[in-house]
Amino acid sequence: MSKYLIAGNWKMNTNADETRKLVSELSASASKNQEVEMLVCPPFINIPGASELLKDSFVSLGAQNCYFEEKGAFTGEISIPMLKAFNLEYIIIGHSERRAYFNESDDLIAKKLEAILNHNLKPILCIGETLEERNAGKTFEVLKNQLDIDLSKADLLKISDMVIAYEPVWAIGTGVSATNEQVAEAHKWIREYLENNYKTEAAKIKILYGGSLNHANAKEILAIPNVDGGLIGGASLKSESFLKIYNTAIELS
Ligand code: PGA
Question: Which of 167, 170, 177 most suits a substitution to test ligand 1, by most atoms within 8 Å of the C-beta?
């Protein structure tokens, strides 16, 4: 198992040409490193193109969402088997933008997580509190509620394939990351939650930090105990900034 996962969440950015350029630049620089895994998650429509270019590279491929049913009358949705056909390993679920703009509930996220594990792919489950919730002292209550429901259907035998991304909503895309103390406290709390529920498997579950992670703060944040990598939005859209974070992880590993 690698020590760090450095994951790019491209969100609704990059057209086909931009995807080709970015993927080519990243795959040219990613090395076979046992300690650090690089992952990119382009928009659905550019997954086939990215998959082709990444075939013999050391960069992993992921999606930003999926539906839990395998096929059928679900207009506009994409199933896990459709994604799996493109050598994809990871699927992000429960991102705060999907929770906020598309009304995704924890019950729906639980079904997606169950289905992804059953298909032997790796879900990256995003959790995190809003600023109001943090200011009201409810951070851990919110995280517990999200984890309790989101993990309620997970196959315990596959649980170590799961990745958790702690993403305080107020830190996403704002340029203001959580402080080192806030990151340390939240990641420790999540690790303890996993230990209480999954015993020895808990140590194998990666916990990523997300929210304005960039090349300037990566060294400090990735060095915090229980931080096993990053889920990176804005800074993953330019190869130069994403590679700086990746190389920082290599230095630290
Ligand atoms: P950001 O996004 O790095 O632009 O803050 C992170 C995310 O939403 O996953």
Answer: 167
